[in-house]
Structures are given as C-alpha cells and as structure tokens.
Amino acid sequence: MERLAAGVDVGGTNTVTGLVDAKGKIYGQRSFKTKDYPYFCDYVERLVQDINFLVRQNEGAVLAGIGIGAPNADHFKGVLLNPVNIRWYERGSEPFGPDNMKVIPFVEALKGYFPSLPVLVDNDANAAATGEMIYGGARGMKDFIEITLGTGLGAGIVSNGDMVYGYGGMAGELGHIIVRPGGRSCGCGRRGCLETYVSATGIVRTMLEILASDDRPSRLRNVAVAEMNSKMIADAAAEGDALAAEAFERTGEILGLAMANFVVFSYPEAIFLFGGLAQSGGLLWEPAKRYMEANMMRNFAGMVKLLPSGIDCSNAAVLGASALVWKELMRLESL
Amino acid sequence: MERLAAGVDVGGTNTVTGLVDAKGKIYGQRSFKTKDYPYFCDYVERLVQDINFLVRQNEGAVLAGIGIGAPNADHFKGVLLNPVNIRWYERGSEPFGPDNMKVIPFVEALKGYFPSLPVLVDNDANAAATGEMIYGGARGMKDFIEITLGTGLGAGIVSNGDMVYGYGGMAGELGHIIVRPGGRSCGCGRRGCLETYVSATGIVRTMLEILASDDRPSRLRNVAVAEMNSKMIADAAAEGDALAAEAFERTGEILGLAMANFVVFSYPEAIFLFGGLAQSGGLLWEPAKRYMEANMMRNFAGMVKLLPSGIDCSNAAVLGASALVWKELMRLESL
C-alpha cells in the first residue's frame, strides 16, 4: 500500500494535479483549464474528481494528504487572498462582474471532501522551498533560502528547519526588498524592489537601459520593446552580444549583493536558485556568485553554497505542492 | 526555594554578574574589572567566586543555570571568537604579547565548575532579544526583531519562537546589511553597512556631512570632530538646532527603510528598539517610524508595531544574559 500525496499547482491558466510519493516519484498527473470553472464550488468539484481519478488509477494507493501551491496563499488561514490572475465567483453572482471572491477558502473547501486528511496551501515559492527540503538539494538542511526567478522573484526561507512565515504568514517576499530607493516602479506600488531588477522582466528593463546609454551595436536593437524577453537576451549574450552580456552582469551584481545581505540576516547553509533565468548557462550564475562573495561579510566568506535547485524544473510546482503534505506529516509526528 | 539564573555581562571594561528570577527580578549584583584577570583561568575562577557569593547571599536560592552575554559569541560552540576589546591569555604565555587566546571556551570553562547546570553564551544583541522575550515586551510573541543601537547596531531575530542563529550561529548581524553600496567604510572591512549610518557613531558621521554641505549655523561647529557624540547632537536638536535635527531625520530615514526591508524578510509582530539613541525623546523614533511605514509593502502596512524595549536599560545586559537560562530550560522542557 503506497502512501501518495496529491500536489496541486493552481495557475491562472492551468490547474495541474499529481500524485507523488515521499521520495518525489510522480504517479500520474491531470490538468484542466482554471478558467473553465468560474464558480469556485465547481472548480473544487473538478479538482476533487482529478484527485480521486489519480488515486483510483494507482491500485493500492492511499492518499496521504493534499498540498496546494497557489499565488497569494496565506498558509495559516488556508486561503488565497485576492490573487491577481485568478477569478472565482460564488453561485448566484452571475453575470460575472467585478465582484469576484477576494478571500478564497481553499483548505476549507477541500476539507469538505477529505475531512480526515491534511490539506495545506502555500505560495509557489514556499512550496518550491518545501520541495527542495523534502525531495531536492536541501534534504538534511535546517537553514536555507530558495529563490525562484520567473516573471518576478519569489523566495522561501527556512530557519531552524521551519519555513519562516512570520506573524501572519506572508514573510519571505524577498522580491520586494527595496534595493534602489526611488528606483524602478514595481507592481506592488513602490519603487526599487529587487524583482524590478532581478527577474525575467527586470533584465529586459536593464537591457533597455543599456541600449539607451551605450551606443554599441546589438541585435536586440531590432526587437520591439514589447516583444523582448529574457530568453532573447540570454541567446544574444551566449552568441557574444556585449550589451546583452552587460545586462546579465548588472543583474548578477544586484542579485549578488542582495544575497550577501540575506546571508547576514539568516545565515543559510545554502541558497538555491530556481527557474529559467537561473539556468541560463552560467550567464547569471557567474556574476551573481562573484558579487555575492565580493560583498560577503568576512564571517561568512566562502561559507554559503550557491546551488541550482535539485528539483526537476518541469514538475517543480506539483512536486513542491505535494511536499507540503510530507512536511506537515513530519511536523505532526514530531509533536 | 527560589530558582535563580546567573546573568553575566562580559564587557571590555567590567564583568557584571547578577542573579535573576524567572520574572526578571534581580537578587544582587557583583562586578569586577575584566582586565584585572589577564589569564583566562583566573578570570573564570573570579567569575565563579562572584556567582557563588551571590547564591550564598540569597538564603534558599538554587542556581538554575548561567547565561553569558558577550561580544563575538558563538552560541552553538559556546565560545567567544577573538573579541576585539577583550584579551585573555593562557598560563605560561607571559610576558603578555600578541598571542592572546583567539577562541575562548567560555561554556566549557564554566561547566568545569557547574557540570550539571545549563551554561549558555550568546552575543549581546541575541541576549537582549532573549531578555525581551522572557521578561520584556515580547512575552508571548513568536516573531519579533530586537535592534540594539549603541556604538554599532546589533540585532536579534526571533522566528517561530526561536532565535535565528542560522547555519553556524552568527545570523542576525543586521548592522552589516549593506544599505549604501560603496558608501561609508565599516569596521568589518566593507562599505555602506547599516551601522555606519544608524548608530551612535553613524549619526556623528552624518552630522559631519551635514556640517560640510549646509552652511547654516550650528553650535556643533564649535565641537572638535573627535569630541562629538550622539548625545551632543540629540541635545542640540532638542534645543532647535536645525542641522542636528536633520541628522536625526536622515538617520531615521535609513533606519526606517531598513526596517521595512526586514519586515519583508521575516514579518515580525513587532520591532523593538533598544539603547540610548533609540530613547532620545522621539528624535530618532519619529522619522524612523514614518519612513518605515512610507516604505512598507502594502501587505504589511500598519501591521508591525515599533516598540521601545520593555527591559530596564541600566540592567539590560545582565537581564538578557540570565534570560538565556530560562529560554534553554523552556526548550528542554518542550522536548
């Protein structure tokens, strides 16, 4: 009898569910379009169908619990708080207007179907960090930081073996550390946040600054601003485009200094970098590591490992979500 | 039978020992000049005499343990690592030269005299945070930050009810977050650290910058640079000196932004400010709070209390050191 955890990746486009064992092996996945279910009750029913389908597919499997990775999750309250890219409505609220649900009681809704199982929700970056701790490179570590580089910059901080949630569950928003007071405008309404520089969108903004200030040729001058993305900059840099290389250098400089400051705060054994931008063949890695060490306080020099995530990138969201279940079961056992 | 913890404040000038009950009431103190005992073994013997003297003075008292607050303490290893202002030697090393002890085995030495009692060492700021948690304003809080403002800036971070020591015990050095890359030189060998701006010495440097850039009159123009201190700046500001007031405004601006960034990291329920500079009659407090909120990420706006330390300033070091014992006993009980 194999105990399997359901990991659910709730995205604005797709909702992907997988069953995962305690070692991170995946036993089947299901997916549907999130927007096909504008009523939250219908959405939950469909999600439960997918979970039950997967359990039935695996003879002898026993569901150990359900972990959900989702944007704007409040782990303590078990809800999503007004996620930007997902809208659900309550029955009776048609026609669908602006009155979508602001607080989405994800855990409560699933507990209605699985009353005796652990059901946990957390934001994507904390789920990624939990995946790293349970299945990945952070196994056995009590203090580490997971940085996820995508459209924005997310982070999960683990200290003394526990996720740092803080008072109210929203700690670790390291993408919103202000690194340049008065700097670039951020979606959060402030200026100079780390993720406006260090992220897939941040490096495009840096590229534009370089194209403005440096008049050397670059093939990226032929790309419309709205079309430009981090992959193009990486490709150009890999082929010797000096300005594209400079964009990675500057991004790594800001990330490296930020990581040196994170170390002063929580002194992790390792910092894991996760996501496409981190994997761009050393382009970001090399300067990020160099500037981290150049800015490191003496006590910590050479002491903190900078590591690639040990989680398979293509299944990371489902793996991270499922890991929430194993972490919770370990916590319950230790009580 | 009253259980009392010994709190030992190890300073470059004095070593102060006090006996403290679990509520923070002090049952007598003893003090001696640290430099009178250049041999570490003699120093420890004298310290043990003071502890035993205090225990005998309190009839029926039972020693619960010994907590030591000291510079450069490694809590996990129980040692002091080459503290700047204190030098001890091993017997046989006379005449006293540069070969002072680099790693001072404080816990091991005291365990030799009190083998069955908990003996703990921690740095001053972590001891202050522990004092806040056991006796002060942080009772009942699981997530808070204690910032101590003295010659430098120290900090103790508590997350999930535990001190954040990180991998190797030296986390929380928030005075050495780099806030101005390439900025003021710091004793740590780098540039732009928070404590070069926000501390008793930092505000003097800021005052000098203002005296250089602003040609309005100030009574501080009559003070030699080497003589100037934060108290003089506070007194001048309190009496309407515009440039001295500006020094507090700028210091509060940097501290406020830094605190807004700390909140993003660990989301404390409260930040406690401790030390003379913090108490200068709202001069630092008011701008620090204003800039903290002005820079706060929306999720946290108005959520984090900025509080004065609830620990009696004059006995804070002994209280904080003694609190290490009660915290350890609570930890042992919870196992």
Shape of chain A: globular
Largest sheet of chain A: 5 strands, mixed
Going across the biggest sheet of chain A, name each strand in turn.
3-2-1-4-8
The separation of the N and C termini of chain A measures 25 Å
Query: Which strand-content bin applies to the residues of chain A?
Result: 15-25%
Structure classification of chain A: alpha/beta
What is the mean pLDDT of chain A?
94
CATH superfamily of the largest domain in chain A: ATPase, nucleotide binding domain
Q: Poorly predicted ranges of chain A (pLDDT <50, ≥5 residues)?
A: none
By CATH reckoning, the class of the largest domain in chain A would read Alpha Beta
Order of helices and strands of chain A: EEEHEEEEHEHEEEHHHEHEH
**Second-tier CATH architecture of the largest domain in chain A:** 2-Layer Sandwich
Per DSSP, the total helix count of chain A is 8
Question: Most extensive chain contact?
Answer: A-B, 42 and 42 residues
Give Rg of chain A in angstroms.
21 Å
3D architecture notes:
Two copies of one chain form a homodimer. By secondary structure, chain A is of the alpha/beta class. Chain A has two domains: 3-130 and 314-334, ATPase, nucleotide binding domain (Nucleotidyltransferase, domain 5, 2-Layer Sandwich); 140-309, Nucleotidyltransferase, domain 5. Helix content of chain A is 33%, strand content 20%. The first copy, chain A, contains eight helices and 13 strands. Chain A has a five-stranded mixed sheet. In chain A, strands 11-10-9-12-13 form a five-stranded mixed sheet, with helices on one face. In chain A, α3 crosses α8. Chain A is globular and about 60 Å long. The model of chain A has no long low-confidence stretch (mean pLDDT 94). The interface between A and B is large, with 42 and 42 residues.
